[in-house]
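During the second half of the funding period, the structural biology subgroup turned its attention to how the target accommodates small molecules. The most pressing case was flavin-adenine dinucleotide, which had performed well in the primary screen but for which no bound structure existed. We therefore specified the complex as follows and requested a full 3D prediction, including the ligand pose.
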Amino acid sequence: MAFDFDLFVIGGGSGGVRCARIAATHGARVAVAESRHWGGTCVNLGCVPKKMMVQASEYGEHALDGRGFGWSSEPGTHDWARLIAAKDHEIGRLNAIYVRLLGNAGVTLFEGRARFEDAHTLVLEPGPLDPEFEPRRITARRIVIATGSTPVVQPHIEGYEFGINSDQAFHLPERPERVTIVGGGYIGVEFAGIFAGLGSEVQMIFRQKLPLRGFDEDLRHALAEAIEARGITAHPNSLLHGIRRLDGDQHGALQVRLTDGREWATDCVFFAVGRMPNVAGLGLDATGVRTTAEGRILVDAGSETHEPGIFAIGDVTNRVNLTPVAIAEGHILADRLFGGVTREWSFDTIPKAVFFSPPLASVGLTEHEAAEQGPADIYLARFTPMRHTLSGRKRHSVMKLVVDQASSRVVGVHMLGEDAPEMMQGMAIAVSAGLTKADFDRTIGIHPTSAEEFVTMRARTRMAAVAE
Ligand code: FAD
């Protein structure tokens, strides 16, 4: 059978764009459909606008901190609308770059929504990106599902419809004075920092004792302290019971109630309670593609679904939901299918960062994970970074190495403190390369930096082991 394309990619986000572009450079006839925004979540409603807003939220503190260095600076007032307009302008530029990159690689672009009619046929229909899009039917030998994910809604919470999620937070007409964040994952933590830094009164509700489940415990404790130091009120071990509109409040204020009866008034309830794969309306029933109960597309190690010739990459597979992972999965797949190239990436040492102020970042095993595999040596440093000896701000850095005793390899590196994400990229190379503590010890530091701490930790803080 003759197909219209060798490869059709559904979704022009991080994973889809990379997969399409690399496949086209290998000579394949490739098309991509994008229904909402080129560049996907990362560019439009994720990493990029989020980091710009984190940066915006830090200038007030910088102005205050400058006083300790002799400046007579004041934070002044923040213009939310100007920030949102500047962010949107930059995102518009990035959208155009994505379109150009794909076009230059010879990829055919469709600004429509795709759904399966059968395993090799897609129907394209109008979506938000181009409501005038002319529907059509397209066939392809191979199809990649790269449709990403979307924020989870909690319809079981009374009044959930009064809340917003991260998608809406990027386009609020004005900054709410009082924000209640529901969820202690990285998106909740980052937005708590953004709103607090811009001047909002922030409360955080999360289920666990500490925020950021899955991160190293020392970092989670340090983050809990940093959250408090930023004036954010945390409600750990707490569950939201419901939201209602306050009667007669002209500003549309809301009342939040926890299951233990505590309640308070707020202007905005922000749900950051997870994300779910975008599979609704994709027509997967017309194929042999299988999903988990939550809709996560099941794939093998080669990203192939249960339907031969249909692949899935990125957040829709819910493996590790990060942009560089989606990109790597897309690149590997395109190389393998059309370039005959076997490319390898270290998926077991994926570094991650949380852009709070101060940020935190990690690579490799937590202390607990390492101890489960065998005895581990823990090196821990906690100090006030030089900037804050003069700024007077109560801010600590925490740096930690987790070393497997049997091999002496550094299997985990964790940090909360300024520039942690920038440092962690280099640390990830060291951990992926399997370097030992001795390799760290013989590396000369850069002075005066916080980073030098990673190569000057001589005395073991403790040993970690799981009791037999
Ligand atoms: P996406 O980028 O979501 O792309 C999927 C695309 O498919 C979308 O554009 C969608 O419109 C389109 N689509 C869906 N269905 C169809 C259809 N039927 N037809 C046509 N098109 C369709 N990751 C990091 O690495 N670092 C960060 O700092 C970071 N911060 C984040 C902050 C927030 C608030 C959020 C929400 C996410 C963040 N992420 C971050 C995660 C990152 O954005 C995702 O992991 C990444 O975008 C996944 O890429 P993807 O290609 O799988 O999906």
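Two results from this model are relevant to the next phase. Residues 49 and 194 are 11 Å apart (CA to CA). The first strand starts at residue 5 and ends at 10.
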